[in-house]
Amino acid sequence: VWDLVKLTQNYLKLLVTYVVEGTSSILIHCISGWDRTPLFVSLLRLSLWADGQIHTSLSPVEMAYLTLAYDWYLFG
Q1: FRET label pair with 67: which of 22, 41, 73, 75, CA 20 to 30 Å apart?
Q2: Summary count for the chain: helices (H), strands (E)
Q3: Cα dihedral 39/70/50/24 (nearest 10)
């Protein structure tokens, strides 16, 4: 049985590792369904923001708006 929570956590850890190392670019593709792409982009963006890696000037409300508007609404 596939543990969806564990799969999501492991995939997000892998993405964060690639971004933080800065040795390569990443491409998140909708291979498992279009709804998972904005999920992982949002989680990655929020994780990096919480660690002070990106968008450091944004407040929590502004970050939530950016994530919802850009990653979910504009995605489709």
Answers
A1: 22
A2: 3, 0
A3: 70
Q: Quote the tokens at residue 69.
A: 């508007």
Question: What would the pLDDT profile of 8-33 be if each residue is shown by its tens digit?
Answer: 899 889 988 888 888 878 888 776 66
Which pLDDT belongs to residue 31? 66
The catalytic position among 14, 20, 30, 69 is 30
Q: Tell me if residue 30 is catalytic.
A: yes
Total domains, the chain = 1
CA distances from 57 to 12, 29, 45, 53, 66 (A): 23, 29, 14, 11, 12
Cβ burial, residue 73 (10 Å; 0-12/13-18/19+): exposed
